[in-house]
Amino acid sequence: MPQLSQRISTLNGDGSDGWGVFYRARELKAQGHDIIELTIGEHDIGTDPSILAAMDRAAHAGHTGYAMVPGTDDLRREIAQRLSQRTGTPTTADNILVTPGGQSALFAAHMAVLEPGDSALYIDPFYATYPGTIRAASGIPVSLATRARDAFLPDADMLRKTALQHGAKSLLINTPNNPTGMIYPRDTLDEIAKVCRDQDMWLMSDEVYDTQIWEGAHISPRSLPDMAERTLVIGSMSKSHAMTGSRIGWIAAPEQVIERLIDLATNTTYGVPGYIQDAALFALTAGPELEAQVAAPFRRRRDAALQVLNNQTAVQVIPSRGAMYLMIDIRATGLSGEAFAYRLLEEHRIAVMPGESFGSAAAGHLRIALTTDDDLLLDALDRLCRFAARLIAEKTL
Ligand code: PMP
After folding, report:
1. CATH assignment, 63-286
2. What are the residue boundaries of the structural domains of the chain, listed by start?
3. Which of 26, 87, 179, 181 could form a disulfide with 223 if both were Cys (CB 3.0 to 4.6 A apart)?
């Protein structure tokens, strides 16, 4: 076989992909064990029947051929109007490219701004694909560690120093955040924006969880002074409308960036199926109820989970303000997140993601996905806390 490219051979770096506990849980399940899975960032409901009906109508109306590569005019206009309304930043259809999901938007965004070998910053802990996405765009991923005691918010001085040291071309942030559930407050975003302006960096803002806000407000950094010209927003219908499998999202960016991104889309994805775009348009114009309905179980479970977690002292909870996750600090047990997660799985049949799967900054933590039935979730959390308490007691014997 001829040689594969260096780029694709080293896409995942040399570490593990971080999904070991997840794979082991699936293995145990296949052997017939009852496992409570709190691992995956996907709703426990399907896409709403009204959206599926819109998809069906569109397909039967003949929208099964090649669709407009940048997205249909109506959908681009609707997304633009949504962003104008929600962020206060004037946005037109020319600022929008419709993409096959947020993941493809993340890749396209980095392709648009990175020369091969350019450094691209991202914040640790991070969504698993970030470094690989940057490598796929021939960039060099550079992580910026945050600390649990700062609620995993980036430190502006460290950001400036790292950006300078690497001559970074871009910074990727994610708010509301996967895996921490944090929402970046205004002052953090102001500081980030200032560093981006001072260092002439692009800002990639992954806002795929922007409809899952439990406390405080989501601010898009594109709306901050002089930031629209250097910000590429990544959006998606995956989380907001339980449309993960439909693969539909967008990039919002300056018109000149979108023009070039359309060239990229023409030569890569060739757009998103028309019947999916029509279904997305239906979903976005259906009013806020559909979105609220999709978000409601996570809010309810997050509130109930916090009650359980605030009633004990063995583990500490990071104050989750958004997204479908809770982050738990288990360092008092003396185990790593990974060791704890494997033991919890083998001894208690509960699967959670080790913090280490999301970078070294979240070592000694666990990410709990709120994507399982309320009673199972609360039972699992209760047992997790008792397991942690037992480990702490054993340690002090
Ligand atoms: N960004 C973050 C932070 C995510 O958690 C995800 C999905 N889990 C994505 C982007 C990509 O989502 P999609 O491609 O389904 O829009």
Report:
1. 3.40.640.10
2. 6-46+289-396, 63-286
3. 87
DSSP bridge pairs for 322: 213
Q: Does domain 6-46+289-396 have CATH number 3.90.1150.10?
A: yes
Pocket lining: 102 vs ligand 1, CB cutoff 6 Å = yes
Q: Please, what is the angle between helix 288-309 and helix 374-396, to 10°? A: 30
Q: Is 205 in the pocket of ligand 1 (CB under 6 A)?
A: no
- Centre of ligand 1 to C-alpha 391, Å, is 34
Q: Is the CB of 210 under 6 A from ligand 1?
A: no
Distance, in Å, from the CA atom of 383 to the CA atom of 38, rounded to the nearest integer, reads 13
41: Cβ below 6 Å to ligand 1? yes
**Cα-based distances in Å from 105 to 12, 113, 172, 261:** 19, 13, 12, 10
Tens digit of each residue's pLDDT, the chain (397 residues): 999 999 999 998 876 777 899 999 999 999 999 999 999 888 989 999 999 999 999 999 999 999 999 999 999 999 999 999 999 999 999 999 999 999 999 999 999 999 999 999 999 999 999 999 999 999 999 999 999 999 999 999 999 999 999 999 999 999 999 999 999 999 999 999 999 999 999 999 999 999 999 999 999 999 999 999 999 999 999 999 999 999 999 999 999 999 999 999 999 999 999 999 999 999 999 989 999 999 999 999 999 999 999 999 999 998 889 999 999 999 999 999 999 999 999 999 999 999 999 999 999 999 999 999 999 999 999 999 999 999 999 987 7
Q: Is the CB of 127 under 6 A from ligand 1?
A: yes
Q: Closest residue (by CA) to atom 13 of ligand 1? A: 102
Which atom of ligand 1 is closest in space to residue 102's alpha carbon? 16
User: Is omega for the bond preceding 176 within 30 degrees of 0, making it cis?
Assistant: yes
